[in-house]
Automatic annotation (TrEMBL):
Pfam families: NADH_dehy_S2_C, Proton_antipo_M. Residues 4-238 form the NADH:quinone oxidoreductase/Mrp antiporter transmembrane domain. Keywords: Electron transport, Membrane, Mitochondrion, Mitochondrion inner membrane, NAD, Respiratory chain, Translocase, Transmembrane, Transmembrane helix, Transport, Ubiquinone. Core subunit of the mitochondrial membrane respiratory chain NADH dehydrogenase (Complex I) which catalyzes electron transfer from NADH through the respiratory chain, using ubiquinone as an electron acceptor. Essential for the catalytic activity and assembly of complex I. It comes from Gehyra nana. It comes from the Eukaryota. It is a multi-pass membrane protein. The chain crosses the membrane at residues 20-39, 51-72, 109-127, 147-168, 189-211, 231-251. InterPro entries: Complex_I_Subunit_2, NADH_DH_su2_C, NADH_UbQ_OxRdtase_chain2, ND/Mrp_TM. GO terms for molecular function: NADH dehydrogenase (ubiquinone) activity. Its main location: mitochondrion. One of its GO terms (cellular component) is mitochondrial inner membrane. This is NADH-ubiquinone oxidoreductase chain 2. Its EC number is 7.1.1.2.
């Protein structure tokens, strides 16, 4: 909370209050369901369907997945890019760990439904966004949908999918932070200041969209394969089609970034450029976000 609030801007304060209220409500629901279960059964093992459903929805609220996701884009929009990266990656570890530990007792139908809903709404709601932080928020919602569907089948695949998501999201936020782009319009003018960064941004966006042969294709291929093996072909087809709206706004960002002629600014005429400050994680995460696809069999067997 102090990291989110450190800007002192009213939008940052508003985002901090929203984040605090949502997380406090979700934590209260988890404690309520746990206490109710212990009172009724005398055990701390949560096996009752009602309490399990309440805890699942509370954790989904913490993760910012559909249908309890509306706070998430607004909070990310009110923070800095670095704080948005922390909320999108690091802050999801604890709720996902809870889901991971409870996966044997979780309602599979609820996970499949919320996962599919998150993938659909994350793509649709991101289509009309122009702010990069809101686009990344809806991207995160869609990816959480894939992770929830993986969790309903194999927890090991969930770990691989989440690690891939963290790497790709860190690479993307590092690119945005390096070029200080907060809107799609900014991305169109950033080419003249750092062409190499924008080229890597293009590749990272296509990896986020799940295009082969990049890293982002690996978890989607494995999840669709698992769904097909479990005779959930309609779910697999719907999930694959749900990724198309997300792919559209990734390609729109990539098109604006590198495939159009940028507006003629004074920087283009210069024979020199200011040295941009690159985060230490940028090179490593970008390389990992692009080149892991050939290692997918080994990664799938070791996770």
């Amino acid at each position: 909370l102090p990291i989110t609030m450190k800007l002192g801007h009213p939008r940052a304060t508003e985002a901090t209050v929203k984040y605090f209220l949502i997380q406090a409500l979700a934590a209260a629901l988890i404690l309520f369901a746990s206490t109710m279960n212990a009172w009724q059964t005398g055990l701390w093992d949560i096996t009752n369907a009602t309490q399990t459903t309440i805890i699942t929805m509370a954790i989904l609220m913490k993760l910012g997945t559909a249908p309890v996701h509306l706070w998430y884009p607004e909070v990310l929009q009110g923070t800095t890019l670095t704080t948005a990266l922390l909320i999108s990656t690091w802050q999801k570890l604890a709720p996902l760990s809870l889901l991971y530990m409870m996966h044997m007792n979780l309602p599979n139908n609820l996970l499949l439904l919320t996962g599919l809903l998150s993938a659909l709404l994350g793509g649709w709601a991101g289509l009309n966004q122009t702010q990069t932080r809101k686009i990344m928020a809806h991207s995160s919602i869609a990816h959480m949908g894939w992770i929830l569907i993986a969790l309903s089948m194999t927890p090991e695949l969930t770990t691989l999918t989440f690690l891939t998501y963290m790497i790709m999201t860190t690479a993307m936020f590092s690119s945005l932070n390096t070029s200080t782009t907060k809107t799609i319009t900014d991305m169109g003018t950033a080419w003249s200041s750092s062409p190499m960064t924008m080229t890597l941004t293009l590749l990272t966006l296509t990896s986020l969209g799940g295009l082969p042969p990049l890293t982002g294709f690996m978890p989607k291929l494995l999840i669709l394969n698992e769904l097909t093996m479990k005779s959930l072909l309609p779910m697999a087809v719907t999930l694959a089609l749900a990724s198309l709206p997300s792919l559209f706004f990734y390609i729109r960002m990539a098109y604006t970034t590198t495939l159009t002629t940028p507006p003629t600014t004074t920087n283009i005429e210069h024979k020199w450029r200011f040295k941009s400050t690159t985060l230490p994680t940028h090179t490593a995460t970008t390389a990992t976000a692009l080149l892991l696809m050939p290692l997918s069999p080994a990664l799938h067997t070791t996770t």
